[in-house]
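Narrative summary of target 7.
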Amino acid sequence: AVMLDMLDITCPELPADRPRYLMGVGTPDDILKSVARGIDMFDCVMPTRAGRHGLAYTRRGKVNLRNARHADDPRPLDEESDCPAARDYSRAYLHHLVRSQESLGAMLLTWNNLSYYQKLMQDIRATIEAQAFDARAAEISEGWARGDIPVL
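Modeled conformation, tokenized:
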């Protein structure tokens, strides 16, 4: 909340004709809220760090593949994703890789996360150009709030 309050104060003071960079901000929610306040660029380690810790970012929010609920789940992280890591591997397999500390698990979840972030930023840019950012940001936030798919 403090970061967003500071953005509310500082962004209007920054030149409109220059890129606005926010260092180290990493959650999709923080990115969305920062863009709404005028930030253009970000860098962070969140997609890779989360992947190494068994966390996947999806259009339904953050999914913890360490949780036992995924142990026998044949469904993918996100069947609608363009990313093969999200679309072509079962949650059960990803759960197994993460729980057994196989490096492939971290690699696949990092791939998913980077792909998700790229898609999120692409979506943000397109909706800004179409002057539809606020509505799309609300839809994205609602998707995260609905949460992950139900347990089998």
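Strands lie at 21-23, 41-43, 55-58, 61-64.
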